[in-house]
Amino acid sequence: MSVDFTAAGDGIDFGNIPAIDDLPQKTVMAWINAQSYGHDVGEGVAITAGLNVEDGWTFDVIGIAGLNTITVDELFDGGLGVWRAQNGALATGSWKHIAFTYNNTSAGNNPIFYVNGVLSATNIIAAPTGTVVSNSGSKVIIGNRDLTGRSFNLTFDGDIEDARIYDSIFSADKIKSIADARTFRLGAPFPIWRCKMIGATGLQTFGGTALAGGNTIIDDIGGVAGTPISSPSARDSVNLAYQG
């Protein structure tokens, strides 16, 4: 099952996940089926981990000015670092596996992007300086962001499924193997956070039912349920094989 972000303002808020705070190394990935590049301004958030200010990190899709790609930003004390995969790397209207790896221990490092397990060139839009700003206490949100004065204003348009965060840097071969497998099955190393649809009696199909009651999206690693913001929907997906 996937989560469909059908309207501006939709999102899933997991609150603070301590395991995500201040990760020096990370691999972040998700399956997405973007219908456009966002409900709001041509940009839509897939996954973010930040506070109610411009800090932490954000993984977006962006179509402004025909960029049609994926982008990452993370705040350093010398400014916000912004990086994008190559222009045109992400088409809309079909399922894509998107991922990035990043080591933020040096401002000179850059994220590495992948689409469907294939390496994409990294464009440096704004190079940070100094050291990374702590995002301790950050909220993990999928489908949107929550910033002071700009709450839930970069809504993803489409479906997100099996979003994962790891506390290590994956090789290109590892990311390609996950993209090629198209399954929920996990193998070592395990993620420190993953979102998965569950129901009151376990895994179910919901056929477009709004997220309410026993139909929830949950971090099945830490057991934390996400809180629906506005009206995202759960719906059947034929994208991934349910093999555990």
Task: Note the topology.
Blueprint: E1 2-5, E2 11-16, E3 25-34, E4 43-50, E5 57-62, E6 69-76, E7 79-85, E8 96-103, E9 112-115, E10 118-120, E11 122-126, E12 139-142, E13 146-147, E14 150-151, E15 158-166, H1 172-181, E16 193-198, E17 216-219, E18 224-225, E19 227-229, E20 233-235
Antiparallel strand pairs: 1-15, 1-20, 2-12, 2-19, 3-8, 3-15, 4-5, 4-12, 5-6, 6-7, 7-11, 8-9, 9-10, 13-14, 15-16, 16-17, 17-18
Task: Please provide a written account of the structure.
By secondary structure, the chain is mainly beta. The chain has one domain: Jelly Rolls, CATH 2.60.120.200. Helices cover 4% and strands 43% of the residues. The chain contains 1 helix and 20 strands. Strands 1, 3, 8, 9, 10, 15, 16, 17, 18 and 20 form a 10-stranded antiparallel sheet that branches. The protein has an 8-stranded antiparallel sheet with strand order 11-7-6-5-4-12-2-19, with no helix packed on it. It has a two-stranded antiparallel sheet with strand order 13-14. The protein is globular, with a radius of gyration of 16 Å. The relative contact order is 0.27.
Task: Report the top-level CATH class.
Answer: Mainly Beta
Run of helices and strands: EEEEEEEEEEEEEEEHEEEEE
The helix tally amounts to 1
Q: How much beta, percentage-wise?
A: 35-45%
What CATH architecture would you give?
A: Sandwich
Determine the N-to-C terminus distance: 13 Å
Oligomer: single chain
* Count of individual beta strands: 20
Large-scale geometry: globular
How can the largest sheet be summarized? 10 strands, antiparallel
Query: What value does the average pLDDT take?
Result: 84
What is the count of distinct domains?
1
Low-confidence stretches: 200-206
Q: What is the CATH topology descriptor? A: Jelly Rolls
